[in-house]
């Protein structure tokens, strides 16, 4: 094995005795022509290439044949220049979006043509069978080295392409979420560079990683823009109300706390993300349930109520003053019962089911609430203020804020 200056390694080629330059010289050009024709027949994609590309293939084939002769006759011959050529060929295949499969098939076809021609010429020159076996081994080793070089170049380019695409998609995401609304032409240009088709409607998703033993990056549809490296990770989801979209998101985001904002136009994505982040913060506090993908539109009352907590907290202390004077344990039970009554039209059976108590218990607590608040308990204009006050008071009380 030999080690090159760039750190790559190659297996040593067998040195074959004899004048192989004289053996190969008469037919090496014809072998190159035959290889090109059979490659074009066996790999239709190559046959459709531009003439300049075919010329480059011919140059690579002829250079490979000449290099092969040097390798088996000169112990000091190096494979480095040729492997660099094939690394570049593999790199080019990836950059234009082609699979490496066609190139590998072409290389195998070329090796097959070379073996067939050498076998034919060996009979004419009465070549020993052992030499023919050594030649076949050298050709296979040579093919393996070139294939490895092409593969290395291909994977390098694939990583570069993926990295460039990822950076372009992040730049597009930053543009769409910018405080300054981008122009339609700027969006179109950035979307084209990122390989992203601007949709008619979008929604932003705010994310918070759950505490799990193993972090898993979500497997999201390719049209979803994603940036998980932000201080506050987020997504941009095209056509969020499309068939199966919500289920796909919930499955992909099962290891995350996630809230999806309202469906908006592209230029309004900042608002969608703002609401998504606010409802995610409420879920973190326990104000809204954190059970799967949280939809902002399902929790608009909570978003509105908690928009100005200080104001509602001040109103709550005044509105709930009679309740706040009783001992804490009994006060909490009555507060939760009153909130459930307001949300269920004072239906004792439904309230009991929600609170997991007997209906008679609800009626007893309701009688106590009537004594505390009197007729205002059933005043339609007061009910909204009661409900807002109770929701905020119960949340802040649970967080330890003094009443």
Can you walk me through this structure?
The chain is an alpha+beta fold and 403 residues long. It has three domains: 2-164, Globin-like (Orthogonal Bundle); 199-299; 320-398, Orthogonal Bundle (Arc Repressor Mutant, subunit A), CATH 1.10.10. 62% of the residues lie in helices and 7% in strands. The chain has helices at residues 20-24, 28-42, 44-47, 51-73, 80-95, 101-124, 129-176, 184-194, 245-252, 269-285, 300-305, 309-319, 321-324, 328-343, 348-355, 359-373, 380-398; strands at 2-3, 9-10, 202-209, 225-227, 234-238, 256-260, 293-295. A five-stranded mixed sheet has the order 4-5-3-6-7, sandwiched between helices. A two-stranded antiparallel sheet has the order 1-2. The longest helix has 48 residues, at 129-176. Residues 1-9 have low confidence and may be disordered.
Briefly summarize what is shown.
The chain has 403 residues and is an alpha+beta fold. The chain contains 17 helices and 7 strands. The strands form 2 sheets. It has a 5-stranded mixed β-sheet with strand order 4-5-3-6-7, sandwiched between helices. It has a two-stranded antiparallel sheet with strand order 1-2.
Descriptive tags:
alpha+beta, Globin-like, Arc Repressor Mutant, subunit A, 3 domains, two-stranded antiparallel ribbon
């Amino acid at each position: 094995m030999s080690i090159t200056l760039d750190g790559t390694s190659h297996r040593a080629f067998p040195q074959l005795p004899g004048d192989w330059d004289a053996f190969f010289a008469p037919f090496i050009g014809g072998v190159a022509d035959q290889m090109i024709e059979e490659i074009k027949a066996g790999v239709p994609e190559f046959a459709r290439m531009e003439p300049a590309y075919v010329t480059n293939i011919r140059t690579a084939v002829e250079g490979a044949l000449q290099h092969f002769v040097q390798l088996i006759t000169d112990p000091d011959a190096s494979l480095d220049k040729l492997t660099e050529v094939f690394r570049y060929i593999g790199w080019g295949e990836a950059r234009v979006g082609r699979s490496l499969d066609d190139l590998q098939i072409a290389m195998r076809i070329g090796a097959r043509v070379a073996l067939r021609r050498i076998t034919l010429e060996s009979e004419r020159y009465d070549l020993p069978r052992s030499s023919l076996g050594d030649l076949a081994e050298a050709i296979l080793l040579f093919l393996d080295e070139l294939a490895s070089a092409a593969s290395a170049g291909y994977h390098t380019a694939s990583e570069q392409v993926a990295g460039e695409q990822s950076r372009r998609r992040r730049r597009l995401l930053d543009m769409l979420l910018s405080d300054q609304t981008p122009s339609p032409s700027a969006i179109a240009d950035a979307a084209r560079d990122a390989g992203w088709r601007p949709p008619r409607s979008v929604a932003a998703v705010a994310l918070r990683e759950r505490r799990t033993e193993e972090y898993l990056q979500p497997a999201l549809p390719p049209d979803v823009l994603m940036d998980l490296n932000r201080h506050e990770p987020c997504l941009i989801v095209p056509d969020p109300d499309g068939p199966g979209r919500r289920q796909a998101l919930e499955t992909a985001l099962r290891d995350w706390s996630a809230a999806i904002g309202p469906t908006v136009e592209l230029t309004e994505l900042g608002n969608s993300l703002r609401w998504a982040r606010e409802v995610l913060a409420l879920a973190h506090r326990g104000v809204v349930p954190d059970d799967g993908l949280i939809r902002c539109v399902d929790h608009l009352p909570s978003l509105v109520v908690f928009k100005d907590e200080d104001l509602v907290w001040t109103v709550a202390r005044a509105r709930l003053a009679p309740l706040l004077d009783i001992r804490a344990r009994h006060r909490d039970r009555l507060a939760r019962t009153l909130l459930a009554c307001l949300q269920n039209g004072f239906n004792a059976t439904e309230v009991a089911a929600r609170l997991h108590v007997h209906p008679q218990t609800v009626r007893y607590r309701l009688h106590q609430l009537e004594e505390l608040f009197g007729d205002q308990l059933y005043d339609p204009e007061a009910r909204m203020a009661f409900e807002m006050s109770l929701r905020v008071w119960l949340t802040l009380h649970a967080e330890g804020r003094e009443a």
